[in-house]
């Protein structure tokens, strides 16, 4: 990215700042996936919390986020330092996130046979650590996205950084490796544990860790390593970004005023409601991992891929196709959507993705009903499923990019009409949508898994049966499989359709935003010129 711009008065970021920002964002999204995908799987399949227990935890956390996110946005917008209002948080928050993320995994295994006090303490630790993580993550997430509207005054450069940010955010999938590596490496981690403790298993076989405990220790070990790596990357954002857009007003609205601002800004309100209605699409990234782990890997990726007669090439291809479908569509859409949005009305493109994107989500469940076991046993059918997932994730990725770009436009809209630039508050809305979406998805997942009894001790029993080779998935194989395919298909399809309702008559068309942005740039530089003339006159006097 060059510092040069066709308009010399427009300030924007350089290549070093952009690279540092994107590196930090990649790290932050790895952490997000360690929690959003890894921790939920950990709760369900590693320490065996009842489905309704972690569902309740997530529900409480989301209620708190409804207050905490705008609160943090208000704090960011009231921050005035020599570095700006977002950069200070990006400097100091990564270390806090590192500690709390690790604490989330340091818990005991749940069992219905435990005393009630111990069961309560296990659930309480899970709930408190998860809520604390959400608060610390918010303290970094809002400034990280809010700073994009402060890094440049140019609309194309802003769209570029947001598009690249959404592409790089998919690097966060590295955080999901914690699920896939835990089982294959649990023996190695257990041997490391014995070595550190000085335990001779041959002489003391009674001290050998059982399968569930080995898996837990392996999960913790990998989660900590990935989190440390991710937080190092996250730190680059604070060290690199510079805020180029200066707020012209000294007004410091209260949190109550900011809530009012968020709701009274019609285009932002429309996006906020639309994002909440679209929440179930997060099931694609959360339940899809459990689906792959249980349906294709029998909950042990290493063992399944190794096969009985060497590497299972067919399964490798199937999983790569599914991964390309689930993540490839999001990456591709993130790359091309900003260019498409420059040629078409953003509102029309947003609604197109919402309505048409619902179709492939629905087709995922139809494919399961039609092909059943062939999805696993037939490579051509797996390829078809991969194509369907690609189309679904394309719509999801395109909507994510458009949402960020349109929220940044809303910041300009608010500054133009009311003289206040609520970067932190408005991007707290995006953070709220992201976490609420994950919360609603987890609640739906918890309810469905509770209904089919894929919860608590039953999950432990399924894992043991799979590890011992005494059962394929479980005696309730078809029920569990159908539940997972239902979750990644039907609720997201409904959410996509509903999300188009609030934005069908979106209040900030492209031409209006172009006019607003040009007026703001002209005003900022006119004010600066006036200030310089006044300062020069004072000096001469």
What does this structure look like?
By secondary structure, the protein is mostly helical. 76% of the residues lie in helices and 0% in strands. The protein contains 20 helices and no strands. It has helices at residues 15-45, 51-77, 87-103, 116-146, 155-169, 177-197, 211-240, 255-264, 266-277, 283-296, 301-306, 313-343, 346-371, 374-377, 379-418, 423-451, 457-468, 477-487, 490-503, 510-540. Helix 4 runs antiparallel to helix 16 (423-451). It starts with 14 loop residues before the first helix and ends with a helix.
Key terms for this structure?
541 residues, mainly alpha
Helicity level? over 70%
Structural class, judged by helices and strands? mainly alpha
Number of DSSP E strands: 0
Described by the principal axes of the CA atoms, the overall outline is: globular
Number of helices: 20
Mean pLDDT: 84
Helix/strand layout:
Layout (H helix, E strand, L loop, with lengths): L14 H31 L5 H27 L9 H17 L12 H31 L8 H15 L7 H21 L13 H30 L14 H10 L1 H12 L5 H14 L4 H6 L6 H31 L2 H26 L2 H4 L1 H40 L4 H29 L5 H12 L8 H11 L2 H14 L6 H31 L1
Helix pairs in contact: 1-4, 1-5, 1-7, 1-10, 2-4, 2-16, 3-4, 3-7, 4-16, 5-12, 5-15, 6-7, 9-15, 9-16, 9-19, 10-18, 12-15, 13-15, 13-19, 15-16, 15-20
Quick summary of this structure?
With 541 residues, the protein is mostly helical.
